[in-house]
Write a structure and sequence with these properties.
The chain has 657 residues and is mostly beta strands. 9% of the residues lie in helices and 41% in strands. The protein has a 7-stranded mixed beta sheet. Strands 42-43-50-49-45-46 form a 6-stranded mixed beta sheet, covered by helices on one side. It has a 5-stranded mixed beta sheet with strand order 1-8-7-3-5, with no helix packed on it. Strand 49 and strand 50 form a beta hairpin.
C-alpha cells in the first residue's frame, strides 16, 4: 500500500512538472506574422528570387513539381526551413508536367507556429506561345536582355509574337509611347519607353530588377513574357536650372548679407522691390544624380573686369565671401553672402556672379580652364551667361523701408512652373503683423491645386488659419518640411487661408496668405463623386476621361425616364479596348444601343462583354473599339445602359467626335 501511494505521488509530481513546462512554452510562444502574398509570372527554365520575412521558425513548401527551391544539391528541394529573419530563396522553374495551351500555377505555402498561409503564387506561361523582343539596334534580347527607359525621349524597341498580345504590368514610373501596345500575330510592332518625370525620380538611374518589368501577354491571360527595365538617368550634361526669378540681373544683397532683393522694374534696391528673401537665396538645379558644381565669379574693385572666385567644393571656399549650401544634396541650393564693410573711396559695394554646371560639362571644360572659358574681359561668355548663370548681384546698402519677401512658390504638380508671390500691402497688414508678431507678409493670389513653397529660413513651426475668420484650419492642408512647404488647395473647401511660419530666431517669423479660392488646375472645394472608372483593357496608360452628358443627342430627362438611369455621362471614342467599371459596385448586366436623330436601336456584339478586370478583380464591362471592332462607332454614337450589383443604372454615351 505504501508502495502504491508512493507511485501515485511520483506520477502526480511528474504531471505537475509537465504542465508547468507546457505553460512556460506557451508563455514564450511567438505569434506568427505572415507577409503579404506575392505574384510572380515566369516561363519554363526561368530562375527567380523570392524574398519574405518570418518572425519565427518557418518552413516553405512548393505545391508543384515544376517549381522547386535551388540548393547546393542539383536536384533542388520542394521544402525549405529556417529561423526568423528576412529570407531570399531562388525558385527554379522547370518544364515538368507542361500541357500545351495550359497555364500552371504553383503555390508557395509558409508554415509558422502551426499555421500555414499561401504567401506566393507562381504562374508559368503556356508552352506553345513564342514572343521575341528586340532592342533599338535590332538585337534579340528576349532571354537575358533588358529594355531601356528613356529620359524625355522614348527608347524604341520591337516585339513580335505568334499570338495576339498586349503590353501590361508596366511600373508606375514608366510611360509607354501611345499609352498602349497591341501586336497582331506574326507581325513586328514598335514601342517606346520613357520615364514619367516628377522633378525627382528622373535624376537617378534605376537598375534592372524583378520589380521593374514590362509584361507581354495574350488576350486570354494564358501566356506571359516579362522583361526587366533599366533607366540610366538624365542625359549626362543635361541640366535644368530654376532661378529665383526670370531676371538673372539686378539683385541687391544687404551689407549684413541677410536680405536679397530684386526690383519689379528691373532695378533692385530703389524702393520698388517686389521679390525679396531673407538670410539666403534659394535656387534649384536638376541634373544626373545631383552631380553639379557651383562656380563663383566676382567683379574687380578697381576695374570692371571679371575674375574667377572659386568652386563650391574648394577646400578654402569657406574663407570666401560667397558660398552655397545643399543640405540634403538634392539640388535645392541656397546662396549665402557674408557681411561686407564698405571702404570709403575704394569699395563701397561688391558684385558677384553665381553659375552652375553639370558634372559632365564641368569636367569637359576642366577646373583649370574655367576662367579662360567662361569669362571674356568684363563680361561672361554669352553661351554660359544664358545657360549657366543663376544670378548677378550687388552687395550694398538697402533702403530700410523695403519689404522683405520670405517666400517663393512653384506649381506642386511639376515643381517647375513659377507661381507669383508678392508682398501683402492691404490695409489690414498692420493688424496681422501686430496680432501674430510676423516680420513680413506675402500673398499668393493665384495658387495651383497643389503649391510648393520655399521659405527663406528653416521651418520650426507652421500653423494654418482661414482668412475670413482667423480660425484654425484642419490638419492636412499644409505639409512643412525643412525649408519647404506643400499646400493642398483641395482641402480648404474653397476658402482662402493664411499660414504663420516660424524659424529658429524671432526674426524668422512670416505670414503667407494663399487665395485658394482662386486655385487653378482642378476642382477646389469638394470633388464630384465619380460614377465610372474607365481604363484600357490591357492595363496600360492613364484612365480615360468621361464627362457629364452634354445633351448633344437629346434631352437628358428623356434618357433617364426611358432607361431608368440615375446619371448620364459621355466619352470620346478611345479607338481601343476599354474596361468600364462602376465605382460603387460590380457590373452585373448591360444593354447597348446605337443612337440616331429619331430613335435608339438595340445592339448585340461579341465586342461587348462582362468580365473580370485582371488588375482589380472587379466585374467590368469590356468594350473593344480598336481595329476590327464590329461596333458602328464611326457612324453612330453608342448608348450603354449599365446596371450595377447594387441595382443602380447609369448611362454612358460613346461618341465619335
Amino acid at each position: 500500500m505504501k508502495t502504491l501511494c508512493k507511485s501515485w505521488l511520483f506520477i502526480g509530481l511528474l504531471m505537475a512538472f509537465c504542465l508547468a513546462a507546457c505553460s512556460d512554452d506557451d508563455d514564450n510562444a511567438v505569434t506568427p506574422i505572415f507577409p503579404e502574398k506575392q505574384n510572380l509570372i515566369c516561363n519554363s527554365n526561368d530562375t527567380r528570387e523570392f524574398t519574405f520575412t518570418a518572425n519565427t521558425n518557418w518552413s516553405l513548401a512548393s505545391s508543384a513539381i515544376w517549381c522547386k527551391f535551388k540548393t547546393d544539391d542539383e536536384l533542388g528541394e520542394f521544402v525549405l526551413s529556417g529561423t526568423a529573419g528576412t529570407q531570399t530563396v531562388t525558385l527554379v522553374i522547370t518544364n515538368d508536367n507542361m500541357q500545351v495551351g495550359d497555364v500552371s500555377v504553383a503555390k508557395l505555402e509558409l508554415t509558422m507556429g502551426g499555421q500555414t498561409i499561401v504567401i506566393g503564387e507562381v504562374t508559368r506561361s503556356k508552352v506553345d506561345y513564342e514572343l521575341k523582343i528586340y532592342d533599338k539596334e535590332g538585337n534579340d534580347i528576349t532571354k537575358d536582355g533588358v529594355l531601356k527607359v528613356g529620359y524625355q525621349e522614348y527608347v524604341l524597341f520591337d516585339v513580335e509574337a505568334n499570338f495576339r498580345f498586349a503590353a501590361t504590368n508596366l511600373p508606375g514610373w514608366v510611360e509607354l509611347d501611345g499609352g498602349s501596345l497591341v501586336g497582331p500575330v506574326n507581325k513586328k510592332v514598335q514601342g517606346g519607353l520613357r520615364i514619367i518625370e516628377n522633378g525627382i525620380r528622373e535624376k537617378y538611374p534605376v537598375l534592372a530588377s524583378d520589380e521593374n518589368v514590362i509584361t507581354f501577354s495574350d488576350e486570354e491571360g494564358r501566356a506571359f513574357h516579362s522583361i526587366k527595365l533599366v533607366y540610366e538617368g538624365m542625359t549626362p550634361g543635361v541640366m535644368e536650372l530654376k532661378r529665383p526669378s526670370s531676371n538673372m540681373y539686378d539683385w541687391v544683397v544687404s551689407l549684413d548679407g541677410k536680405s536679397f532683393t530684386q526690383g519689379s522694374g528691373g532695378v533692385a534696391g530703389t524702393g520698388s522691390s517686389t521679390t525679396s528673401f531673407k538670410n539666403r537665396l534659394p535656387f534649384t538645379v536638376k541634373t544626373l544624380e545631383d552631380k553639379y558644381h557651383v562656380v563663383f565669379v566676382t567683379k574687380g574693385a578697381s576695374n570692371n573686369n571679371l575674375y574667377f572666385e572659386g568652386v563650391d567644393d574648394d577646400e578654402w571656399m569657406d574663407e570666401k565671401w560667397m558660398s552655397c549650401e545643399d543640405e540634403k544634396k538634392d539640388g535645392n541650393i541656397s546662396l549665402i553672402v557674408k557681411p561686407f564693410t564698405p571702404i570709403s573711396g575704394y569699395a563701397e559695394e561688391r558684385v558677384g556672379y553665381v553659375l552652375v554646371f553639370s558634372d559632365a560639362e564641368f569636367n569637359r571644360i576642366g577646373r583649370d580652364n574655367l576662367e579662360s572659358t567662361i569669362i571674356n574681359g568684363d563680361e561672361l561668355v554669352y553661351q554660359y551667361e544664358q545657360t549657366n548663370l543663376v544670378l548677378q548681384f550687388t552687395q550694398k546698402e538697402i533702403k530700410k523701408d523695403e519689404a522683405i519677401q520670405y517666400f517663393s512658390a512653384v506649381d506642386g504638380t511639376d515643381y517647375v512652373t513659377p507661381i507669383e508671390c508678392t508682398p501683402y500691402t492691404e490695409s489690414n497688414a498692420e493688424h496681422f503683423k501686430t496680432e501674430y508678431g510676423v516680420k513680413g507678409i506675402s500673398e499668393i493670389k493665384q495658387p495651383g491645386v497643389s503649391t510648393y513653397v520655399t521659405v527663406s529660413f528653416e521651418i520650426w513651426d507652421a500653423k494654418c488659419y482661414f482668412l475670413d475668420n482667423e480660425e484654425a484650419a484642419p490638419d492636412g492642408i499644409i505639409d512643412p518640411a525643412g525649408t519647404t512647404m506643400s499646400i493642398d488647395s483641395k482641402k480648404t473647401n474653397g476658402k482662402d487661408i493664411f499660414v504663420i511660419v516660424k524659424g529658429e530666431t524671432e526674426d524668422d517669423k512670416a505670414m503667407l496668405i494663399v487665395r485658394t479660392s482662386n486655385a487653378s488646375g482642378g476642382e477646389v472645394g469638394g470633388e464630384e463623386t465619380a460614377i465610372f472608372k474607365i481604363t484600357s483593357s490591357n492595363g496600360m496608360g492613364s484612365d480615360f476621361v468621361c464627362t457629364p452628358y452634354s445633351g448633344s443627342l437629346g434631352g437628358a430627362q428623356y434618357f433617364q425616364n426611358t432607361y431608368g438611369a440615375t446619371e448620364l455621362f459621355e466619352m470620346e471614342n478611345p479607338n481601343a479596348g476599354i474596361n468600364i467599371a462602376l465605382t460603387s459596385s460590380d457590373v452585373v448586366s448591360y444593354k447597348a444601343y446605337t443612337v440616331t436623330d429619331t430613335s435608339e436601336e438595340e445592339l448585340t456584339s461579341d465586342d461587348i462583354t462582362i468580365g473580370e478586370d485582371y488588375f482589380s478583380g472587379k466585374k467590368v464591362l469590356n468594350v473593344w473599339l480598336g481595329s476590327g471592332s464590329s461596333l458602328p462607332i464611326s457612324s453612330k454614337p453608342i448608348l450603354l445602359v449599365i446596371t450595377g450589383e447594387d441595382g443602380s443604372k447609369q448611362i454612358l454615351f460613346i461618341i465619335n467626335k
